[in-house]
């Protein structure tokens, strides 16, 4: 693409330069022919140098017109691009160039620039979310553990208080372990890609295992589960798909209301398997739904709910590694509906 772009621009410059030389040469030849034919230059005639002045003036006008044309068609777009790149270098990732241009090469160049800026903006957003999340998620449990260690140094503590402090320290270490595990899993997925180990297993039984594992959580809220999981054999990565159902079910429980319902259905279709996990919880806005699968994104900036913004990003990446898709449909205060599709005949590559 790059070689083609610069090659076409070189041809354009060459054509403009050639036409400029042809036009100027034609004007000079024409004027010299007229001067010679009508004998306009003669020492005996008064003002015999006027034709030369006229030729010089006309040449300057033609050169200025062609220079303006070249500047507007080629140099001005390059200047606009330079100014835009200068703004990007200062951290302004909102700049976008108008892609409507007569030159196809400039139009493609502007389009590539706009795509680059959007990607940089996404990376900057991810970096900000990462710094905000990691700094808080590590700082809070570490501060908690440090505080309880200091309290445990008090020899007059009762056995009950000592046990309570130890349990809270354990909660802090589990929070740190969960965060680091998710980061390592994402890194593993980024590095290994489709090189994961695929095998055939019971998909319906795996989802049941997740539901049973989370039973203490949904029983605490008196949730009603509507489950339909027919016998399903699937060829995929069992370890990582377990994380998908675990994250989705945990979120469905966490954001559900007391005495609510959770709908978990598995449908066997000719093209693949469709899994639907729906809750009647707090739901989310369209703006949140658009970013819910971004790494380190948390809609609850107050951090009243536990989480580090990695669960759904991890789930999406795992599903996509199985050539599947995950979509969410949600309304505020009405719940969320997650639809996952896993295709059949997936080969380990």
TrEMBL record:
<dbReference type="Pfam" id="PF00672">
    <property type="entry name" value="HAMP"/>
</dbReference>
<dbReference type="InterPro" id="IPR003660">
    <property type="entry name" value="HAMP_dom"/>
</dbReference>
<feature type="transmembrane region" description="Helical">
    <location>
        <begin position="9"/>
        <end position="38"/>
    </location>
</feature>
<dbReference type="InterPro" id="IPR003661">
    <property type="entry name" value="HisK_dim/P_dom"/>
</dbReference>
<feature type="transmembrane region" description="Helical">
    <location>
        <begin position="50"/>
        <end position="70"/>
    </location>
</feature>
<dbReference type="InterPro" id="IPR050398">
    <property type="entry name" value="HssS/ArlS-like"/>
</dbReference>
<feature type="domain" description="Histidine kinase">
    <location>
        <begin position="133"/>
        <end position="346"/>
    </location>
</feature>
<dbReference type="Pfam" id="PF00512">
    <property type="entry name" value="HisKA"/>
</dbReference>
<keyword id="KW-0472">Membrane</keyword>
<dbReference type="Pfam" id="PF02518">
    <property type="entry name" value="HATPase_c"/>
</dbReference>
<dbReference type="InterPro" id="IPR004358">
    <property type="entry name" value="Sig_transdc_His_kin-like_C"/>
</dbReference>
<keyword id="KW-0902">Two-component regulatory system</keyword>
<dbReference type="InterPro" id="IPR005467">
    <property type="entry name" value="His_kinase_dom"/>
</dbReference>
<keyword id="KW-1133">Transmembrane helix</keyword>
<keyword id="KW-0812">Transmembrane</keyword>
<comment type="function">
    <text>Member of the two-component regulatory system HssS/HssR involved in intracellular heme homeostasis and tempering of staphylococcal virulence. HssS functions as a heme sensor histidine kinase which is autophosphorylated at a histidine residue and transfers its phosphate group to an aspartate residue of HssR. HssR/HssS activates the expression of hrtAB, an efflux pump, in response to extracellular heme, hemin, hemoglobin or blood.</text>
</comment>
<keyword id="KW-0418">Kinase</keyword>
<keyword id="KW-0843">Virulence</keyword>
<feature type="domain" description="HAMP">
    <location>
        <begin position="72"/>
        <end position="125"/>
    </location>
</feature>
<dbReference type="GO" id="GO:0016301">
    <property type="term" value="F:kinase activity"/>
</dbReference>
<dbReference type="InterPro" id="IPR036097">
    <property type="entry name" value="HisK_dim/P_sf"/>
</dbReference>
<dbReference type="InterPro" id="IPR003594">
    <property type="entry name" value="HATPase_dom"/>
</dbReference>
<protein>
    <recommendedName>
        <fullName>Heme sensor protein HssS</fullName>
        <ecNumber>2.7.13.3</ecNumber>
    </recommendedName>
</protein>
<dbReference type="InterPro" id="IPR036890">
    <property type="entry name" value="HATPase_C_sf"/>
</dbReference>
<keyword id="KW-0808">Transferase</keyword>
<keyword id="KW-0597">Phosphoprotein</keyword>
